[in-house]
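F.,

This is the one I mentioned.
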């Protein structure tokens, strides 16, 4: 089954970091929905901390379906 997702949102973010859609996009505000255009897109996450980072990104369509992606990052040091 193919689902066309219409929105993307950042939820449950722990740690300091910035999520953007596209390299030069505006930073996501947690729990706000952002439109997902047809075709390919990229999300960029930039850590602002050396602590563990956890984020959850939710994609939703207009039929009530959602897909949650969870990411966990750890600082590996230099």
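My design for it:
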């Amino acid at each position: 089954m193919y689902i066309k997702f219409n929105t993307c949102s950042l939820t449950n973010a722990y740690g300091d970091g910035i999520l953007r859609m596209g390299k030069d996009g505006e930073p996501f505000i947690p729990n706000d929905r952002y439109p997902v255009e047809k075709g390919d897109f990229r999300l960029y996450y930039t850590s602002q901390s050396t602590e563990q980072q956890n984020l959850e990104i939710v994609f939703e369509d207009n039929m009530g379906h959602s897909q949650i992606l969870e990411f966990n990052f750890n600082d590996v040091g230099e």
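Strands lie at 7-14, 17-21, 33-35, 43-47, 53-60, 66-73.

Talk soon.
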